[in-house]
């Protein structure tokens, strides 16, 4: 992963990789390069990629009824989602503002169990219809990161770089690990991605 190599090379004192890795990310960099007095305020956690549209419950319910989709409201949606993932189900998450760029960061996401090797097959061959071997990008709670990834690996909030999985952990996440023992993981910071962290 080029971003990880740039960061490890130490050619820059600090590195910021925008959440959108395509031309839209280049446009964002262009805007920042023209700002002289640092007038754009960011939190300590950096710019939020959650810049897209959001929809309230009434709007969502209207569309569910329009397309005659069955739905129910669980008492604890976060627990319900986590339980279904643990049973091998694949979940479509539609929550809050949409992400800017091509990253699924817990607002418009497909969630599956990375410990189940069949998850990769289901996602790639049945749902996304892409190459069978492509691992999906996992998400990890901030307080669990150090148990799964090498200490030298700085966490990535937006899945912009591949990081080394600890050798003794690779076997536990077969659907998320690349052949070189890395994965493009999202560090789910509780303050920044509060709802996703709860799942």
Describe what you observe in this structure.
- The protein has 199 residues and is of the alpha+beta class.
- Helix content is 30%, strand content 9%.
- It has helices at residues 2-9, 23-33, 57-66, 77-86, 117-128, 145-148, 194-198, and strands at residues 91-94, 108-111, 139-141, 163-164, 182-183, 186-188.
- It is globular and about 55 Å long.
State the helix count: 7
Uncertain regions spanning at least 5 consecutive residues: none
Radius of gyration: 18 Å
> What's the number of extended β-strand segments?
6
Helix content: 25-40%
Task: Choose one word for the global shape.
Answer: globular
Largest sheet: 2 strands, antiparallel
Instruction: Report the order of strands and helices.
Output: HHHHEEHEHEEEH
Strand order in the sheet with the most strands:
1-2
Quick check: average pLDDT?
85
| Beta-strand content | 5-15%
Gap between N and C termini: 28 Å
Quaternary state of this entry equals single chain
Overall SS class: alpha+beta
Q: Which secondary structure elements does this structure contain, and how are they paired or packed?
A:
Elements: H1 2-9, H2 23-33, H3 57-66, H4 77-86, E1 91-94, E2 108-111, H5 117-128, E3 139-141, H6 145-148, E4 163-164, E5 182-183, E6 186-188, H7 194-198
In a few lines, what is going on in this structure?
This protein is 30% helix and 9% strand.
Features:
199 residues, two-stranded antiparallel ribbon, two-stranded parallel ribbon, 30% helix
């Amino acid at each position: 992963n080029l971003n990880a190599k740039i960061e490890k090379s130490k050619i820059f004192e600090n590195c910021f990789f925008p959440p959108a890795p395509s031309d839209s990310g280049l446009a964002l960099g262009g805007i920042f390069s023209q700002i002289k007095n640092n007038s754009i305020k960011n939190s300590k956690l950096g710019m939020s990629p959650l810049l897209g549209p959001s929809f309230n419950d009434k709007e969502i319910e209207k569309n569910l009824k329009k397309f005659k989709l069955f739905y129910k409201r669980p008492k604890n949606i976060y627990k319900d989602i986590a339980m279904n993932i643990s049973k091998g189900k694949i979940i479509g998450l539609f929550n809050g503002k949409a992400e800017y760029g091509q990253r699924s960061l817990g607002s418009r996401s497909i969630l599956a169990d990375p410990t189940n090797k069949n998850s990769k097959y289901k996602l790639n061959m049945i749902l996304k219809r892409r190459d069978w071997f492509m691992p999906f990008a996992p998400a990890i709670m901030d307080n669990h990161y150090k148990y799964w990834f090498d200490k030298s690996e700085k966490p990535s909030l937006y899945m912009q770089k591949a990081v080394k999985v600890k050798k003794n952990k690779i076997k536990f996440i077969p659907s998320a690990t690349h052949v070189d023992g890395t994965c493009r993981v999202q560090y789910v910071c509780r303050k920044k991605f509060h709802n996703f962290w709860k799942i």
